[in-house]
Specification:
Elements: H1 3-15, E1 24-26, E2 35-41, E3 49-53, E4 56-57, E5 59-61, E6 77-78, E7 85-87, E8 90-98, E9 107-115, E10 120-130, E11 135-142, E12 154-161, E13 169-175, E14 181-188, E15 197-200, E16 202-209, E17 215-224, E18 229-235, E19 250-255
Parallel strand pairs: 2-10, 12-18
Antiparallel strand pairs: 1-5, 2-6, 2-7, 3-4, 3-8, 8-9, 10-11, 12-15, 13-14, 13-16, 16-17, 18-19
Amino acid sequence: MNRHLKFAALACAAALSACGNDANQVLATTAPAAAQVKFFNFGVGAPGVNFYANTTKMTAIGSATGSESTTGTTYGNAAAGGAYTAIAPGQYDLAGKIAAATDKDLAISHVNATLEAGKKYSFYQSGFYSSATKTVDSFLLEDNVPPPPADTAIAVVRFVNAISNSTPLTLYAKLTDGGNEFAIGGPTPYKGATAFVPIPGGFYDLTARDAAGTDKIIRTGVSLNARGAFSISARGDITITSTTATNRPQLDNTFNP
């Protein structure tokens, strides 16, 4: 990773406002930095993982001693503090591999993809982890982040549905000061994502609704700063109604530089 990208990654990590992000390391690669990927562990019940592209370790967690932690990126977190990790363009097997000493480096998720020069991607480890097969679902999205809007009061937002047992959901963003409510695209199925939608920058209450108009997930007081680009991702088990369960459905907000 070149010097500019490394500092950009650190800045992006500081800008995140939602995903619980561990003290991740952003690992440099030896290849030219031409494609960029960010990684999420949203697989319900999945162990902590390090993310790989073929045999290249893309993310890991540092310990207090400076050695690699066996914690990995745990459920509900974005790897590398939510920053992009750079890699040369090409064909890759992107995978989440167990970070713990037991089953160390066992791949539990895979996506085979061609990463193109100058493009950004998000890898989602998703669905439900099977302890029997030691596997979990995953998918890859291209992050078609538009240029900063000419109107300096505007933010751009997209919705990603990473809940495997949900019906298509539509995300609504309502200004917390009693202002307008905006639909972020339309009904979005599992593994789907909307385009980035322009809305006024500000504080929002977010609601994901099903086709019947039922509120399935609510999150309040989310900052979507003007001229910023954000991905709001749904994760968890849509059947859980507890307000405290780790696997309850939640909305995560991640900055897309």
